[in-house]
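Quick one:
INPUT:
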């Protein structure tokens, strides 16, 4: 028999005077995303929180939509704690997007991250950075821009830091980037000098550059243009060079450097100017925003300056690049990922993407080991006339999973098109969180019935095909709870079954109640570790359990017909703690519980009387 907990410090008796209820709205969630830390569980409490850590809606993935379904349905005043892990292949964990400035053996690297954790994936490639001079000497800060609804928007501004403190400051603050610095001699000014925008200068073939507009390119573009230079004493520029280079500040003083200098924009550094001087050209650039001008003086034979106006466009901040999503994941990878959730205070577990029977098997085994309820949606290929044969292996005598049939249509993030997704997020938010909260926040509240409904659904995958007889077959024969539309009630669930084939293990609320009792007692009764197994301590333990179960009895968890004595019984005495048991360093507690059941069907019997009904008055 397993001990209740390990490696726990002995506490004072007062700390064990009651059993603390296990959390009721906590779930582990496995997602696929192009953003977010791997190898750890992240606590998510809102849709905005999820987007910051794991990103927004993705094509051919359901994670964001399922999350939205949860938070659209939980109701006001209730916050579920979701411990989210990112499904990933540990042998191919993806590549983190990054940008690095190097000077000799020193470097300054900014990569996609979340509070000091690397965030591998393609989403990081959309991030843009601006390193800005701070208010104090040798200080700077980073502005982070992300692509929001097709437009780059400022999403974060870090506190100011020096080069030496960059990693500590940024990594403790930022939910978008992670900084790594090597060495100490890389001057902040050198990093600042790399800050720039990218522009294109139109050309006039065969003559000096005329007064044409300078157009700002998209962020991250490379500059390609034709630049003319004077040679020797020739009065007209005759040498042309096609140049394709990124805008670099501080390049060597040659023709390519001059070409690059034509494209310098200093961004947010007021008054910054740069000049290149060689035997053939002098270029000066002092401008920052649309409407400012740049002066270009070509060689020694052209008098005066040509001023070109900077037109509006995107600012060319530094782009993080080379990010790649983790490689394809197998079920074995997911099983390894689930280890991250062991020890987390969760009562439920589900995946936003996996719907096959093999995942259901893995889910059932893991949840049985951890005393958690697994929730999953059948795949979208199932129809009301399916035999669900692939899932038959999951119909076991004592199941730890609840299955749901019927996918739902929701609007995409932009609100422009419908998208079919698993119903699992809407079901969890409405029935496992909101419905329970409305009825007193008790573990034994069944996640079914028409007193609540699923919100945010446009339509169901199947509606007309779901007559009562078909729904009954899917639920009772195949173990799936069916999401259906009921006139006057909306999108509802009329059953709350696990995939158990034994009658006393059918109900979800009983499985959850048992998990709740196990989790609550396992945590709170740690105070009896390293206590003497004697009559005094056995009596104390029994008393604490009696109080705890009495509260659950009063809340309606158990049958009430024969009072508390007929609803639960606790034995922790010398009868089940014999000398042999005590000498083996064990303490045995036996609990026998009679849970209250739900009414899954309402049968009303009506008969027609043969004669008049006699009503006697007293």
């Amino acid at each position: 028999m397993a001990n209740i907990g390990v490696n726990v410090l002995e506490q004072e008796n007062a700390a064990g005077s009651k059993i603390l209820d296990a959390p009721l709205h906590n779930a582990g969630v496995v997602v696929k995303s192009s953003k977010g830390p791997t190898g750890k569980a992240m606590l998510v409490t809102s849709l905005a929180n999820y987007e910051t850590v794991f990103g927004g809606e993705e094509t051919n993935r359901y994670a964001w939509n399922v999350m939205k379904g949860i938070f659209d349905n939980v109701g006001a005043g209730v916050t579920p704690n979701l411990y989210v892990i990112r499904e990933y292949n540990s042998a191919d964990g993806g590549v983190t997007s990054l940008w690095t400035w190097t000077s000799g053996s020193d470097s300054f690297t900014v990569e996609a991250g979340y509070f000091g954790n690397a965030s591998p994936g393609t989403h990081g490639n959309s991030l843009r950075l601006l390193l800005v001079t701070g208010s104090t000497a040798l200080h700077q800060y980073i502005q982070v821009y992300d692509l929001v609804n097709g437009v780059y928007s400022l999403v974060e501004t870090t506190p100011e830091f020096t080069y030496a403190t960059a990693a500590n400051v940024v990594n403790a603050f930022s939910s978008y980037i992670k900084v790594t610095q090597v060495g100490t001699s890389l001057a902040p000014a050198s990093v600042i000098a790399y800050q720039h925008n990218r522009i294109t200068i139109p050309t006039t073939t065969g003559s000096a550059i005329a007064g044409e507009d300078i157009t700002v390119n998209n962020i991250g573009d490379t500059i390609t243009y034709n630049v003319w230079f004077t040679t020797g004493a020739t009065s007209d520029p005759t040498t042309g060079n096609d140049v394709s280079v990124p805008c670099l500040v501080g390049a060597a003083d040659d023709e390519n450097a001059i070409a690059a200098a034509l494209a310098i924009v200093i961004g947010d550094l007021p008054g910054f100017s740069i000049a290149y001087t060689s035997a053939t050209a002098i270029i000066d650039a002092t401008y920052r925003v649309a409407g400012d001008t740049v002066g270009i003086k070509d060689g020694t034979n052209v008098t005066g300056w040509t001023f070109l106006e900077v037109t509006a466009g995107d600012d060319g901040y530094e782009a993080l690049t080379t990010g790649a999503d983790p490689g394809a994941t197998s079920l074995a990878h997911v099983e390894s990922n689930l280890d991250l959730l062991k020890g987390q205070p969760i009562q439920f577990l589900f995946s936003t993407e996996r719907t096959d029977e093999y995942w259901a098997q893995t889910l059932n085994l893991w949840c049985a080991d951890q005393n958690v309820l697994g929730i999953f949606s059948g795949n979208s290929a199932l129809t009301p006339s399916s035999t669900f044969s692939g899932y038959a292996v999951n119909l076991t005598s004592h199941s730890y999973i609840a299955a749901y049939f019927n996918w739902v249509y929701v609007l995409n993030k932009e609100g422009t098109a419908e998208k079919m997704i698993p119903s699992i997020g809407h079901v969890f938010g409405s029935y496992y969180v909101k419905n329970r909260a409305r009825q007193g926040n008790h573990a034994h509240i069944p996640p079914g019935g028409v007193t609540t409904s699923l919100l945010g659904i446009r339509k169901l995958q199947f509606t007309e095909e779901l007559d009562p007889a078909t729904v009954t077959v899917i639920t009772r024969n195949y173990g799936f709870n069916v999401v259906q539309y009921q006139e006057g009630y909306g999108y509802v669930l009329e059953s709350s079954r696990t995939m158990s084939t034994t009658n006393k293990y059918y109900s979800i609320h009983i499985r959850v109640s048992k998990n709740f009792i196990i989790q609550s007692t396992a945590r709170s009764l740690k105070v009896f570790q390293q206590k003497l197994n004697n009559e005094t301590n056995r009596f104390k333990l029994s008393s604490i359990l009696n109080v705890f179960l009495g509260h659950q009895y009063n809340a309606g968890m158990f049958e009430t017909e024969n009072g508390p004595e007929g609803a639960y019984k606790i034995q922790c005495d010398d009868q089940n703690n014999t000398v042999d048991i005590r000498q083996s360093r064990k303490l045995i507690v036996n609990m026998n519980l009679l849970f209250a059941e739900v009414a899954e069907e309402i049968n009303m019997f009506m008969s027609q009387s043969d004669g008049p009904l006699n009503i006697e008055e007293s």
